[in-house]
Design a protein that fits this description.
Blueprint: H1 2-9, H2 11-14, H3 18-29, H4 33-37, H5 40-58, H6 60-63, E1 71-75, E2 78-82
Antiparallel strand pairs: 1-2
Helix pairs in contact: 1-3, 3-5
Amino acid sequence: MRHLSRVAERGAETGMTPRNVAIVWAPNLLRCREFEVGGVAALQCVGVQAVVTEFLVRYVDLIFTDKFACISVPTSTGWFLLT
């Protein structure tokens, strides 16, 4: 995950923004049964996978750390407090 975050840090140069990294890697990192069958459920699953993967890429240093802190994270509906 840290490697993907480093790739995304160079998104301005490479076009691999956190969202683009997530779109490419999400199906490989977060498999779901519906994806194998296909159809509308598979498309919904891919969307959820991409959102989760993008969150992990953007906040890798906060999520995968040994230190605990109280941090506010911006979301589409406001702020989310991580404790």
